[in-house]
């Protein structure tokens, strides 16, 4: 039997698309029934959501035939809100809890006033963390965390002082990656646009290169360091560029691997290559989400917000992400 807090209305506002390939213009404002929390789910009244590049890539059709699973589709997975109803089997969350959640990308649902979230990917949000800051976390900080761990970063003080390169350090993933890498005592070389170099430095990067200069294009560390790991958040850099920049067991974690990177990665795996490229396929768990939200609470991690849009203007948030130049996270707020 579900437990109920504030009674939700029968209908809610949402944005959905009913075909792929239409970009921001394809997002339609609709009124749809408020979903119901089933076993191991919670119903959230949303306060904020963030748009990630994967959201519009799914709409573009890049992940067909897997995603979108059905049309029409309410996109977005990274959200923060208040629990208003709890489905059977949920033990650690109750109505009234403020939370951050990562929705299943098969279901989406984040560009709406209410959504059903899996309880095992919903964590409590401390009062020191705003809804917008919390909603920035799941995909972006989660990818930064997983990439750094895969390179060998440790967050308990036991790690080696590795050298890492973070490309697109001013983006949603990159800004979290810089901060997390410094927390793990890594030496950080970063690339970003000229206008963001001071910001990236202020978050801890040791060396920052403008990606539009020859130095930035070369990706070589200005101090001559070889990289033990690369958190690669841009596209268009080949393995032959990375290879000579790596230390003897250096690893490139490619967040947007093309076919060539996937094939190269397969080859590295079967040949037990010392230097390697690995694609990131994000799989986050509740403990990771709790860890990251905890860092926000402690003030050790910061969500940099590029822009905020009300739900009524969420198509502008969508377009901002498609344009590809946000500095940090693009937030949609549900009031308004
Ligand atoms: N595999 C996975 O599970 C996974 C998970 C998360 C993200 N991703 C992918 O990772 C990529 C990054 O995600 P994101 O959320 O960080 O994207 P984002 O926030 O849209 O990144 C935008 C940033 O990238 C910078 N940038 C663009 N081209 C650059 C270049 N050549 N060199 C350096 N900086 C550059 C931009 O700087 P300017 O404004 O100065 O141009 C901007 O600040 C996306 O392709 C995303 O789909 C994959």
CATH homologous superfamily annotation of the largest domain = Medium-chain alcohol dehydrogenases, catalytic domain
Q: What is the CATH class of the largest domain? A: Alpha Beta
Give the number of domains: 2
SSE pattern, N- to C-terminal: EEEEHEEEEHHEHEHEHEHEHEHEHE
Organism: Lolium multiflorum
Domain Enoyl reductase (ER): 23-332
InterPro entries: ADH-like_N, Chloroplast_QOR, ER, GroES-like_sf, NAD(P)-bd_dom_sf
GO molecular function, one term: oxidoreductase activity
Describe the structure.
It comes from Lolium multiflorum. InterPro entries: ADH-like_N, Chloroplast_QOR, ER, GroES-like_sf, NAD(P)-bd_dom_sf. GO terms for molecular function: oxidoreductase activity. This protein is an alpha/beta fold and 336 residues long. It folds into 2 domains: 3-136 and 303-333, Alpha-Beta Complex (Quinone Oxidoreductase, Chain A, domain 1); 140-279, Rossmann fold (3-Layer(aba) Sandwich), CATH 3.40.50.720. 26% of the residues lie in helices and 27% in strands. It has 10 helices and 16 strands. It has helices at 53-60, 131-135, 137-151, 172-183, 197-202, 214-218, 239-242, 259-270, 286-297, 314-323; strands spanning 3-4, 11-16, 28-33, 41-51, 78-86, 98-102, 114-118, 122-124, 163-166, 187-192, 207-210, 227-232, 246-254, 276-279, 305-310, 329-333. The strands form 3 sheets. Strands 1, 4, 5, 6, 7, 8, 15 and 16 form an 8-stranded mixed sheet that branches. Strand 10 (187-192), helix 5 and strand 11 form a beta-alpha-beta unit. Helix 3 packs across helix 9 (286-297). The longest helix has 15 residues, at 137-151. It is globular, with a radius of gyration of 20 Å. The two termini are 33 Å apart. The model has no long low-confidence stretch (mean pLDDT 96).
